[in-house]
Amino acid sequence: MTEQKKSRKRPISGWVVLNKPYDFTSTQAVGKVRWLFSALKAGHAGTLDPLATGILPIALGEATKAVPQVQDGTKVYRFSVVWGAATTTDDREGEVIATSDMRPERAALEAVLPQFTGLIMQRPPIYSALKIDGERAYDLARAGEAVELAPRPIEIDALELIEHSAEASTLEVTCGKGTYVRSLARDIAEVLGTRGHVGSLHRAAVGPFSDQDAVTIEALEAAEEGAARDALLAPVAAGLAELPEIRLDAGQAGAVGNGNPVLLTGAAAPAQLDECWVSFKGKVLATGSVEFGQFKPKRVFN
Known about the structure:
It is built from nine helices and 18 strands.
């Protein structure tokens, strides 16, 4: 493959449901995928730390318009808590700042998990991308400044113990947007009267995408450029699978394509929907809402 050929970008659209490898930043992953597909435009739906592996949905072309819907979806993480040490980053990459000889029993750990389900308040880790007066928290922390982050409400749907030993335990959490697994590990340890940090972290699902849909960078590289590699893309509509779909006729589709609202007809037409998408002959036309039987486009897809 010549560099001249590779430099030609193409308007390809779809999703790469990447199983991000360890020690690879989300930005590096997007850059690699964009290069492999010679894509004009690319982005991702939710950052994964370099330490983490698992589902990183990468949007190409028109799929970037559906990034907010995927990013807001429910997430599933499988993670290990290493007992007996707290670190600056709340994971194994940080420096140890406190230790404890206490190791929780399985029954004690299972007993506290209900405290961390439902709507709870969580203090984000100081090494996070949250902004304080316009500066990233992790930049301030690395510069040695004292970082104070206020607790925030998060939603945890389920928290289950998978494996347990005196040295580490593996848990699986199903949660909403804004949840920090590193904070969860830290706080569970503290409630148990010990210290802890995340030893490993795998994201098993984001919105409509899960491990079953995932492809590796090696598989993308091994696929022949062109039709074989493009066949590994999920369609743009896959990112909207958790939202209601409304199918339009040709006249309605033409109006929505120009950014105009349309009246929905038929006995099954919804009267109110906070968020949905419309299609014509299987193609995504727009995302938007329905008010009083009228679909109002918010983002129009080409």
